[in-house]
Structures are given as structure tokens and as C-alpha cells.
Write a structure and sequence with these properties.
547 residues; 23 helices; 3% strand; globular
Length: 547
Amino acid sequence: MSKEYPPPGNPLPVDGTPGVAEPLAAEPETVVPHSAESQWSLVWKEFRQRRLALFCAVLVVLLATVAIFAPFLANDRPLYYVGVNRFQYVEAARTARVMLASVINRKTSEGAAAGEASTSDAGNTARQDPVDVIRLQLEIMGDELAGSEREQFDVLREEILTTARQVADGAAEPDQLAELRARLRKEFDAREVTLAIAGHWPVLATLNWLDIAFMVGNLLILTLPLWRFGLNRCIPPGKPGLRSTAVTGVLFGLPVLLAAAWWVIVPERIDRTPYKTGVLITEGEDAKQAEVAYVGVVWPPVPYGLDEGNLGTIFEEPAWWPEDTEETSEEAARRTDKTAAARGPWDTIHWMGTDEIGRDLFCRMIWGGRVSLSVGIVAVSIYVSLGILIGSIAGYFRGYTDLVISRIIEVVICFPSFFLILAIVAFVGPSMLVIMVVIGLTSWTGVARLVRAEFLRLSGQEFVLAGRVLGYSPLRLIFRHVLPNAMAPVLVSATFGVAGAILTESALSFLGLGITVPKPSWGGILSDGRDAIFSGEWIIIFPGLAI
């Protein structure tokens, strides 16, 4: 009896009966996979799961933002004003005449104008090209003029600059430049000209290229989700590498480009204009003799300078401080009247009180955070970089390399880091750079051990073995494949490390071995409050809370 078999391609049924021919199954549809997440996206996702570390990172970013934008938050210069700056015009004219005199008498009497230069910017520009300094000062003068006087001044300015360059090169007689200098003093004296009412940005004008780089970088970090969304809309979704490159280029390239442009276009100068003595231009008031006259002015939230003292407001309590129950009403009224009389027309209340020479404590706390956070972030960057490099080498190569590096780490851990820092600072001397470098060179062991442990855990994973089989170099495997997967605990350690570095710097400043006057730091402010623990306890409370 012959046995029947099903047609080719049909499997036998379970019960053994011959099957019925069925059409071949259609090929499955091609599924387009979603774009894979980058390594750093995975690191960030893992880091977000650690709530305490995430909170500390957000707090550090907020404090860093306040520190970076300190010039716009606490300053004795206006953010913007419309008016006349007679002081700046007078100073620029004086400096221009001094530098013209130095060009005229450069061979015989370069110090003839030293007496006049003592009250000008010439002392700060002595090592610059005199003609460049003259050009800058004449531009400042021209910006304050308007109308026909501005046109006449522009003609005279071109003559002065051309003749000054010829005299400096030996192609013209100094007498010609002396005549032009006399014309400048006679025709454009501050008491004779009418200055133009214009808008000014004093705080913005005093920023340097480093301020611009950090401010732009900080704004890009804070607004990263917004502009990255717009950037992703412009780049096709099938090119994740291009998206990552574009984000990195914007995040690091834009601050560098804007800082370089600022350094080239905006000259760095010192603005000594006493803006606090400015007056408002009103119909019944003649502000022609005032150094600064305002039509309108916008001050920072804390309108006080870093070293702006006021002997009439010594140890003034914070505005919200509870009243002294032992003080009589007459004494309180007398103290209030005295404080009000000592304040200037543009001064406001002191939210954190004042110190022993009447400086606003809130202003010093904001600027002190700039110093303390700079020390913390730079020191952590140094020791995290060292720890990553040393720990990755030990964890990847293992064997004798790991053995030697591990013994070195154990030896470094045995040293008491704080006393080692004290000894180094005592020998080298206290400075901001020394403290950052010393903290960075003595605190890398913890990060190195973390990275080593992560490399030991990950080095046996399939993606590492596949990379070795494909012939990837150790450098590529370490920094492109293994390290991104080991960064989550490193970021947690770095977040808490900033706080530890700030504590170390504050302790050094408190002992007098850290940041020195005139730069404020939280530890230095706390040290100043030791002598005023009973008369100004707020000087200790606020920096202590910040630390």
C-alpha cells in the first residue's frame, strides 16, 4: 500500500493525515527601526534616575548661572541709561591729550605729562601703541557729540590720527601734532561743547571675551531642549551622527566664535564713571555741570558695587531682620534717620545687610559665588579628567598595569588631602589658580577607582569582545565604546565633588590661606564675620548657609 506525501512545501499535519496544499506565506514587511539612542543619551537617562545627584546638578547649574551673570545682577553701573556722560568725555579728552604729548616728546621728555596721566587711563595703556590709544579715546569723545560738532570733530580726529602716525614713524614734525593737540583742547573743551543725549550700556561695555563665552555657553545649556528641537527638525531623522555633531558644534563652537568676535570688535577698557552721582535731567534743573545726567535709567536688582563702602551704613541689618527688643523707639528712629541720610539717591535697601565698612553683603555673596564656584568646577574638571584617564587604563589593561596603578592609588589615598593642600599652599602661596590645581591633583583617586571598577565590569561584555575581534585599537575601545557606558557614576561623583571642592576652598579662605582680598569668596566673607559675631551675625549666617 503506497503512502501519500503532501506536496512539497507543506508540512505534515500532527495527526499524520495528508495535508492540503497551502499557498506559501508572504514575506514579512520590512520594519524600519527607530533611530538608536546615542551613548550620551543613555548616560543621561541613567543619571536622571539618581534623584539626589540630579537635584545637586540642577542646584549647581542655578548657582553657576547666578555667578556667571553677576555683572547684570549686582553692579554699581546701570544696565542701560539714556543721557549724557560728561565724566567719560572729560576722561577720554584728558587721556588723548596725555598720549599726544607722549608722542610729541617721546625722545626727550616722555614723562612730561606724568602729572596729568595720574588721573587718567594712560597708566593702564603705557605699554600699548600710543596711536591706538589715541584712536580709542577719540572714538569715545566722538560718540558723545552730535550734529555739526560731531562732523567737525571727525575731521579733526582724522588729521590727528594721520599726523600722530607720521610723527611716530618719523615722517612729520612734532610741531604739527602739537598744534592739533592745542586745537583739540580749545575747540572741544567739555565746558564749551553740547553733549548728545544717547543710550548707553555700561555693564555690557565692561564685559570681556571670557564673560561672553561663559554667558553664551550657559544660555545654550539652559535652552538646550528648545534649540535642539529646532535643529533636529532641520536635519533628516536618518542621520543621527549629523545631529549629534551639529549639537556639539553649536554648544562649543558658538561661544568660542562670539567670544573671539567680542575680543576683536569691543576694546577692553576700565570704566571709572561715578554713575551713582548722576542726576535726572528735569525741566527746572540744569544738569550741564553734572558728571552724569539721566533722562531714564535702569539699575541692576542689587545696585551696589563689589567694594562700594559707606561708613554711614556700617553693620546695617537686613531689611527683613527682626527688630531689636532692647532698643527704644527713639534709638531706632535715630538709627533709621542716620542710615537714610547716608544713602545715595540710587541706593536701595540691603537684603542681606552690610559689613564692617558698609559694603552690601548680598552683592559680595553673588560675586563670591563666582569665585567659589569657579574653584569648585575647575578643580573637579581637573581631577575627573585625571581619574578617568588613570582608572580607564587600569581597568582595561588589567594585569601588572592594574596592579601598579592600584598601589599608587592606595598610597595617594593614605595622605590626608586637606593637610597636604595646606602644606602646598603654605609653600607656594595662596592664589586662585594654585588652589584649583592643588585640589585637582589631590582628589582624583575616588574617580579613578570608580572608573576602574566600571571598566572591569564592562570589559567582558559582548560589544567590547566584538570590537576586539574587529581589530579596534585600545584607544577607540576605551574612549568611544567603554567609557560612555561607565560615565553615570562619574557624573554623580563630579556633582558632589563640586560641593567638596567649595568646602575645601572655603576652609582655606577661612584660615587665611585661600582667596585673598580684594576677590571675595564665601569662605573669606565668613572669615570677615568672625570679628563681628555679636554686632553683625548675618555676616556669618548667609555665607555659612551658602557653603
